[in-house]
Amino acid sequence: MEMEQMIEKYFRPGRLPHIWCPGCGNGIVTGAIVKAIDKLAFEKDDIAVVSGIGCSSRASGYLDFNTVHSAHGRALPVATGVKLAEPRLKVIVVTGDGDATAIGGNHFIHAARRNIDLTVVLYNNNIYGMTGGQYSPLTPTNSKATTAPYGTVDRAFDVTELAKGAGATFIARATTFHTQLLSDLIAQGIQHEGFSIIEAITACPISYGRQNKLGAAPAMMKWQKEHGVMLAAYEKLSDEQKEDKFPIGVLYKKNAPEYVAEYDKVIAKAQKGAK
Ligand code: SF4
Fold it and tell me: How close is the Cα of 275 to the center of ligand 1, in Å?
């Protein structure tokens, strides 16, 4: 299906045009989600998109599925409720680095720990864009932000490693340069039975790029192209070569009991009155 037809089918015309800045990568990530859903041939009513607050979280308003635009950092508890109430739905959580890992960090850890069948697409633009360019837990050390005009001394963490430690069972990463890969990984995450996270490295040329003199959107995407390396090739690099690179592709996958299925067993036991 051509992109124009996809926009007509999957977006709410009354909510467009979007508010994203020219050159923002959020449209690419949102397009990758739609392409993944289209590829898997789901009905629109089979999908729920839940978001928190922030630039990327506006996507839930633009997309024509069952959607919830929830509170800051609270997309995962809302999505957990949606999934438990309506297990037939494929629930996709649209969130940013600040929303998911700072304000919603606790929820993120526990949703991963439960291995509930949700697919998190984490738009990582390295900054709080909408709220004014403050640094987030994923802002690289020494970067400038409105809350760190001389550079942040905080150490950023790797959200994929956090997800693995917390118990997520499908972990992947791509960039807005590697668009086809991003869409394929989102499709795999949706099909995976358990907690899946796809980190989408995306450019924010306005709130992050401008403060850090990273150039316009094409320069930021060129950086993504030059620094994202498929996992198999990344593993062959020396420690020195790895320093300014990051792995992309499926980073981790395992099978483990899924939360809703386990919860159903408890309900069945309770209905029989057996302890
Ligand atoms: Fe995109 Fe950054 Fe503008 Fe937000 S502030 S819409 S992330 S470019």
Answer: 52
Sign of CA dihedral 241, 246, 249, 253: positive
Distance CA(192)–CA(165), nearest Å, equals 18
What span, in angstroms and rounded, lies between the C-alpha atoms of 147 and 208? 12
Q: Residues with beta carbon inside 6 Å of ligand 1?
A: 20-21, 24, 26, 55, 125, 129-130, 204-207
**Residue whose CA lies nearest to ligand 1 atom number 1:** 24
Question: Which ligand 1 atom sits nearest the alpha carbon of residue 125?
Answer: 7
> d(Cα 116, Cα 239) in Å, to the nearest integer?
35
Among protein residues, the one with the nearest Cα to ligand 1's atom 2 is 204
pTM over cut 0.85: yes
Q: Which of 58, 204, 208, 212 to mutate to test the pocket of ligand 1 (most atoms within 8 A of CB)?
A: 204
CA distance 228 to 219: 14
**Residue 29: pLDDT above 90?**
yes
**CATH code assigned to 3-272:** 3.40.50.970
Give the pLDDT score at 2.
Answer: 81
Nearest residue to 258 (alpha-carbon basis) of 172, 199, 197, 196: 196
Q: Would you say 67 and 49 are in contact if contact means Cβ atoms under 8 Å apart?
A: yes
Strand 118-124, strand 90-96: pairing: parallel
Is residue 275 pLDDT above 80, yes or no?
no
**For residue 116, pLDDT beyond 90:** yes
Q: Whose CA is nearest to atom 3 of ligand 1?
A: 21
Query: Cα(33)–Cα(37) distance, rounded to whole angstroms?
Result: 6
Cβ within 8 Å of residue 255, ≥6 positions away: 169, 193, 194
